[in-house]
Automatic annotation (TrEMBL):
Residues 45-126 form the Quinolinate phosphoribosyl transferase N-terminal domain. GO terms for molecular function: nicotinate-nucleotide diphosphorylase (carboxylating) activity. Keywords: Glycosyltransferase, Transferase. The gene is modD. This is Putative pyrophosphorylase ModD. One of its GO terms (biological process) is NAD+ biosynthetic process. Coiled coil: none annotated. InterPro entries: Aldolase_TIM, ModD, NadC/ModD, Nicotinate_pribotase-like_C, Quinolinate_PRibosylTase_N_sf, Quinolinate_PRibosylTrfase_C, Quinolinate_PRibosylTrfase_N. Residues 130-298 form the Quinolinate phosphoribosyl transferase C-terminal domain. Belongs to the NadC/ModD family. It comes from Bradyrhizobium sediminis. GO terms for cellular component: cytoplasm.
């Protein structure tokens, strides 16, 4: 940010801020948010302290510089409040913002504004990028298949799952798997350790160990998918199938029974906003993607000024 942008008076916006009672709670706990601050300012703010400006009253305004789907705004506000500022949140996570839309305004001592500035800004920028990309995939898919589900994988940066889940939800998608502890998904890598075990035997073992869980299996060919469906798997995850192969699989499944009785068809691997419509048109019930986690951050303009 330029010196002029930093020192320009924070604009006063006519948008009515969200009342604290209307604001959704932060995703992360207070301890987690404090740790984010401690990571950036472990021993105090050397520059602000050396200049002797910490006690001066100031204001800080966050504004969308890009179009974006907002994410983690409540956590950003909570971080700023932890430093001793008063925050007015102008938009909630999940909102689609145009360039120039106010996000939040904070007032407090310069030491608190400077301490919370970059952590809160970066949190919104990174996860709004994820939410924006997720929304683009959801919009492209549901435009041609209104009831399709867009599910994001667990391939987020380790240690950021709370934020990843919140951003995915802000974008209108759902989580595919939160982790290995809550879902059953048999990969070819699992089967490599099972030797000649037959699929019905595998299903019996899984249902006995996890009787309340749906059983999912990843396959790489249509024939393997049909065999798994006939064995009794609840969800067939078709890995790196082309849209035409998904259409062929759905047609084969239709001959096995009704939509209600056949397994769910989940298309996975290499799916993004540019090709998801083809998979939706092909008849996939679910598309599984990691694409949002690679989205570019959305730019947030920050203006700080003395009062």
């Amino acid at each position: 940010m330029s010196r002029q942008a930093l020192l320009s008076p924070a604009p006063l916006h006519p948008i009515k801020p969200l009342r604290p009672a209307d604001r959704a709670p932060a995703v992360a706990s207070r301890a987690e948010l404090e740790q984010l601050l401690a990571d950036d300012v472990p021993y105090g703010d050397l520059t602000t302290d050396a200049l002797g400006i910490g006690a001066a009253a100031g204001t800080m305004a966050f504004t969308a510089r890009d179009t974006m789907v907002l994410a983690l705004a409540e956590d950003a506000a909570a971080i700023i409040e932890l430093t001793g500022c008063r925050v007015e949140l102008h938009a909630a996570s999940g909102a689609a913002l145009e360039q120039g839309t106010p996000i939040l305004t904070a007032r407090g001592p310069a030491s608190a504004l400077m301490r919370s500035w970059k952590v809160a800004q970066t949190l919104i920028e990174i996860w709004s990028g994820v939410a924006t990309d997720a929304r683009a995939i959801v919009d492209a898919a549901t435009a041609v298949a209104p009831h399709i589900a867009v599910a994001c994988t667990r391939k987020n940066v380790p240690g950021t799952k709370r934020f990843a889940v919140a951003a995915v939800k802000a974008g209108g998608a759902v989580m595919h798997r939160l982790g290995l502890s809550e879902t059953v998904l048999v990969f070819p890598e699992h089967r490599a350790f099972l030797g000649e075990d037959l699929l019905p035997d595998m299903i019996e073992r899984l249902r006995r160990a996890a009787p309340e869980k749906r059983l999912v299996i990843e396959v790489t060919t249509i024939e393997a998918a049909i065999v798994a469906a006939a064995a009794g798997f609840d969800v067939i995850q078709a890995e790196k199938f082309a849209p035409a192969e998904i259409a062929g699989l759905v047609a084969r499944m239709a001959r096995m029974g009704s939509v209600q009785s056949r397994p769910v068809v989940a298309a996975a691997g290499g799916i993004h906003a540019g090709n998801v419509a083809a998979y939706a048109l092909a008849g996939a019930d679910v598309v599984v993607t990691s694409s949002p986690y690679l989205a570019r951050p959305r730019d947030v303009q920050v203006r700080i000024a003395p009062i």
